Amino acid sequence: MGRDGFLVRLDQLSSSYLVLLFLAGVGLVAGCLLFIGLIGWAVGVFGQFVRQSIRQGFRLWERLFSWATWDVFLWVVLGCLFVGWAASRLLPVLTLICALIPLMMGVTACLAYMFIDLERYEVARGYKAVHNPLKGQELAQHLVLYGHQVRVPLLIAASVGAIGGFAMLNFGLYQTIGRGWYAVGVNQPAPTFVDFLANALIILLRIVDVLDFASSNHLLAVTYVRQAKWPSALLLSVFKMFFTVVLLQQIFASIRQGSLLSETITDLWNPHEPIHERARNALPQYGPAAVGPLLVSLGSITSLTKEQREQLPPILAAIGPGAIPALVRHLHDPHDHVRAIAVATLGHLHARHTLHLFAQLSQDPSDVVRQSVVDALGIISVTESHVEHKLAPAPAAVLMRPAHHGLWRLFRWRTRQDVVTQSDPIKLAVKTLQTSLSDELPSVRTQAARALGRIGLPAAASAFPLIGVLQDEHESVRLEATKALGRVGGPKTATVNALIDLLQDVSPSVKAAAARALGSFEETAERAIPDLVLLLQDRDEFVRTAVAEAIGQIGPLDEAATDQLVQGLNSPDNIVRAQTAEALGTIGESAQETAAALVEALTDGIDMVRAKAVEALGKIGESAAEIAVPALVLALRDHDNTVCALAAEALGQMGRSAEETVPNLIQLLSHINPQVRASVAESLGKLGRNSPMARTNLEQACRDDDAGVRSQSLRALGQMGCPTTSSKQTVLESLQDIDGPVRSAAVDALGAWGDLDEISLPRLLELLQDPNDEVKVQVARALPRCAGDTDAAVEGLCRQLLEDTSDMVQVQAAWALGEIGPAAAAAGPALVQASQTGEISVREQAMRAIALILPPESISTLVAGLKDPNSVIRKVASEGLLKAAAIPPEIVPDLIDALNDPEVLVRTNAVQVLSRLNPIPSAAIPLLVACADDSDESLRNTAVRVLKLAPEATVNKVMKHLAEDSDSNVDGQK
Question: Which candidate, 258, 365, 717, 846, has a CA 20 to 30 Å from the CA of 274?
């Protein structure tokens, strides 16, 4: 007897209320579960499950099916389905096997598409990059390897595999163990594969209800296979759930990004600084999708402030090269500020492929656009000029672009045209900038001249156009053109003549710039010296300084120029005489012919003139010694203490020619003025090496009442070398001086002498605990020479490194340990701790010491240094790894990560370290290929050399991707 009853009956009148009560109860229970966090936990677990499923699906696809392009993939799927259909009558088990293969291919390929799409989203948000990652980013390795392969065509092929495989699986089950799992219409023949395929599509496309409605209203008579038992229904549920997840992931990603982007762009124009700042930092994370909406929003703004024009290009440039196509499309926008921002951003992105477009915009009717064009040309051209002559040939796989990338291009709305690249971008930029030198707007002319100057020698052809604007009515234009002429080279005769004429300009800044430019031509500008000499009397000090430096660069003064300068020293104006003497000192050795006139000026009645003359003789140096030394000896008795001190100092700069003046200097050690005594002590340290009398008097001066004299005398004893017993005793006594700088000078003297005896060394080590930081610093500097690798010295320096409160002392302690070298291996733990916890300068010096010493802890510490926020420390760490005796396998992932570093030197060193591995890790290949395409010559060459050691098949696979996508950053320019 059949069972016709129900466990619970709700089909009575009151059942409607029961349903509502049931739903209310479900809602109440759900609220409680949400309150206690169970639902949140469940959602999190489900999300983690989905993410892991996507990742594992991608891994499976990568291992099994990544070898197949989308068309090969599709043919394999269709082949399996055909074999399964053909074997359905004779070998239904083979049908099941042939169903599982395309089903697995379709599911894994769909998951791979979702995985790669998520990585594309991370690239768009700025968390990852496909080429040369910036600080805070990592390389999207999977996108680099498979991005060209995992696109919409593969998703379509995967859908065919999943749907066809599911239909074939149901067909195979019907043919074997599940004949009763499916319902077929009455009096209908046995279903075939086509019936199950139609069943899958009907359910997937959600047209079941439409068919049922048509059938019930006698509009359409249709019969199709239906799931009748729970196994087939369960398969169908899993099938529908899978495609629902794929669809929802794409929908939610699009909605979320679009909504947030719109709100962020609105916040960018908010007048409240915190909101504006947040939007400014967030916009680059949206990737290239943010470029178009942001530029469109600019069209609704009547005008931009100067601050906004300066802020927007860096924001857009932070998106990366992916923003270039959208920017190019807006170069012809009807709004001036949109074109200006687009041009400025392309400049920040160094988009060399857009230079030919800039040339067209250089005649734009908008002033702000033309100025942006000139600025952008300057930025791009400077970068190009630094690498253009050094660029190695691009890899063959990059240069030989395939003519097509698959049949799917037939379905694209537009075809991609070949990108026209300029064979000589620098020539094009220079030509455009030359045209801009005649622009009606002064600011454009100014920026054009500045840009040409920044380009330098590659812009030599612009010399005559620059000369043409030297008479511009605007000072800023003349100033930048003058500076540029000193950098671009060009015809020297014409340029020098133009610059000489400019020395008469009314603007002091222009005159100074013209003088510096003439100095850059050195002896070629010799004929400019008479005009330059006249400017040595200019009322502006910075002009006089620039002129004097230029004369020194040009070379020795001829007779006419010397006579002119001498006339300045004979001027009735006290200030002119002093300024002339000062200028001769700035000129330096090139002014040696004026030494006689300067000696004559030592008898001038004005103290300032005599002081400047003495100082100038000292700067001219030994070349003027023959005539200057006797006069300087007389100047030692000058009534002006400043002149006397400067004369003593100048004698010290005269070299061996002034050794005979040592007795005269010794007499002045008892001068009443401490400045004079200190200068005399300094000179005796240089001249009195062979004078026992000088040494004896300096030892006495080490007990002078003035701390400055004591300090200088101690340093002089150290400089003289070959210490006597008396000298040693004097210096050791000074280690206890009450004045910190004196103790520091005593330590300096011991350091200059070198090795210390058993009595002196402990007294020096005691000063590691001195209350004066300068003293401790000097002790650390002295110990590598005085104590070598003694245990006491290493221990003392380690205590300084870890316990001292002064960063300056810690840095010097780390430096000293590095100077000691491998013998200081015991300092490894202290250096490791300092490299991890110290201030930036301490960490840097500790890392340098580790790289020099290479203690047992060095490898792990250097690897940790590769992740330091400070770029200098990362560079030092990478250099240290180059010296490592062996490369442990566990640090290979960190070395691969270092290939993403924003610093070229870090990447180069990481490549060199990886070259020591055999074989080259496959995970490093995409990054090495990216390095081989870098603008830095050293990095390129190193990467290419290492790639030769890698498996050829792996390299070719990555190179094929580069060949297909190397110009993707300019896609859509046409």
Answer: 258
